[in-house]
Amino acid sequence: MSYISGTLRIGYWTLLVTGFVYFLFELRVMTGLMMASRVLNENFFFDRKIVGNTLPPCEFPAIYNFGDSNSDTGGLSAAFEPLPPPYGEAFFHKTSGSGRQSDGRLIIDFIAERLKLPYLSAYLNSIGANYRHGANFAVGGSTIRRQNETIFDYGISPFSLDMQIAQFIQFKSKTENLYNEVKNTPEADKLPKPEEFTKAIYTFDIGQNDLSVGFRKMSFDQLGASLPDIINQLASAVQNIYQQGGRVFWIHNTGPIGCLPMNFFYVSNPPPGYLDENGCVKAQNDMAGEFNSKLKDRILKLRAELPESSITYVDVYSAKYGLISNAKNLGLADPLKTCCGYHVKFDHIWCGFKGIVNNTEVYGVSCEDPSIFISWDSVHYTQFANQWVADHTQNGSLADPPLPITHACYPHWLIQRFFKMRSM
User: Fold this and answer.
1) Reduced to 3 states, what is the DSSP secondary structure of residue 181?
2) What pLDDT band is residue 93 in, cutting at 50, 70 and 90?
3) Which of 109, 219, 320, 394 is found 20 to 30 A from 71 (Cα to Cα)?
4) Which helix (H) or strand (E) holds 41?
5) What is the rounded CA–CA span in Å between residue 260 and residue 336?
6) Is 285 exposed, middle or buried (0-12, 13-18, 19+ CB in 10 A)?
């Protein structure tokens, strides 16, 4: 019996469970849901705080993450060259950086903290990795669909989502075999337990680079026409993990790509209508919105296709755009300005690197106070911004269903069923 069905299959005429422990847990869930349902309004919208305080939190033993640089904890550095200082220095204090394309922690790090799990080691790490509580398959520059170009052209990674899924399947198979060989020895302490793959949470944060490649290579009409295929390939990745036993999925939509400061390095006089009210590239954000809409619709279908799954759609777009919109009120620097790097007129030295400007060597150094900036290096967010977005998404306020990540194991249909009991 699977983890979800074995612990949550309630509300039927017969309780299809085995063992007294499961019965007690189900009774607690049923009681909690019924208590929460009594305080709902007439439209049956439930309060995530009430639900979060009523239901027992999920116990996730591991996180398995798939994505791009927004959640890469060292894959790009392990596969190619390490990120130079000042990357990572605000938190990790390592002269060689942390493998993270930020001054500190990423959203995936704050997810780990919230679930009381260690930070994830990159799957591609060969030194010092610990996979007892999960692994990170994300690599900076990754896309959902394979791209016909190298990382040395435009920074697009060869580790597209299908490759990350293939790596996970290989990882799962090899670690299961190895664990059975070394269990009850110290070597097993760095390996996931085979039975915990079903109980883990699987997180996705990918798609931004598919849009950036599209903006560079396609017309907006062509890119829009390609979105269903991109979304379906992401859905296929979820289906593959489900076939491997994964049941709980936490899926980020893509952020407001039109607000990345890099967009304005070579645009000095934008035409009327090019920018929105916050100075972001409107057409790019509209395309991100279309991507997100199609992603949400596909997730609704996935819930029906994968009946034992719990799939949460997380609106990081709204969190990020909300932060950018309110930057002034929050006392932050211009949200379209970059903290790290040298960007003056049309001279650009990227964060952590050096170059020649007017016969003078110039370094791409960090600003004095990254904590008041949203953009770290013109593409990636600062630790402050990542934490702000994490705080405004992991509590469930921008999630569908609107439950905190600590309660993401509860299936969507189960939550709905019990909240409708109020009408009876």
Assistant:
1) helix
2) confident
3) 219
4) none
5) 7
6) buried
Name the burial class of residue 84, with classes exposed (0-12), middle (13-18) and buried (19+) by CB atoms within 10 angstroms of its CB. Answer: middle
List helix spans (H) across 258-404. 282-305, 316-325, 383-391
Q: How far apart are CA 325 and CA 346, in angstroms?
A: 26
| Sheet (strand 248-252) strand order | 134-136, 63-67, 201-205, 248-252, 310-314, 399-400
pLDDT, tens digit, 9 for 90 and up, residues 186-220: 888 989 999 999 999 999 999 999 999 999 999 99
31: left (phi over 0), alpha (psi -120 to 50) or beta: alpha
pLDDT, one tens digit per residue, over 162-172 is 999 999 999 99
What positions carry a catalytic annotation?
69, 377, 380
pLDDT at residue 268, rounded to an integer? 81
Rounded to the nearest integer, the mean pLDDT of the chain is 88
Backbone angles phi, psi at 206, to 5 degrees: -155, 155
Question: CA–CA separation, 76 vs 97, rounded Å?
Answer: 12
* Contact call for residues 293 and 232 (beta carbons, < 8 A): no
Measured between alpha carbons, how far is 32 from 27 in angstroms, rounded to an integer? 8
Q: What is the pLDDT of residues 19-29, one digit of tens each?
A: 333 333 444 44
Of 266, 261, 278, 280, give the one whose Cα is nearest residue 341.
261
Distance of alpha carbon 327 from alpha carbon 383, whole angstroms: 15
How wide is the angle at C-alpha 179 spanned by C-alphas 178 and 185, nearest 5°?
110
136's CB contacts (< 8 A; 6+ apart) are 64, 65, 71, 72, 73, 74, 75, 108, 120, 121, 122, 123
pTM (two decimals): 0.88
Residue 241 has pLDDT above 50, yes or no: yes
Helix (H, G, I), strand (E, B) or coil at 161: helix
Closest CA to 258 of 325, 341, 160, 311: 325
Q: Do 297 and 234 form a contact (C-beta atoms < 8 A)?
A: no
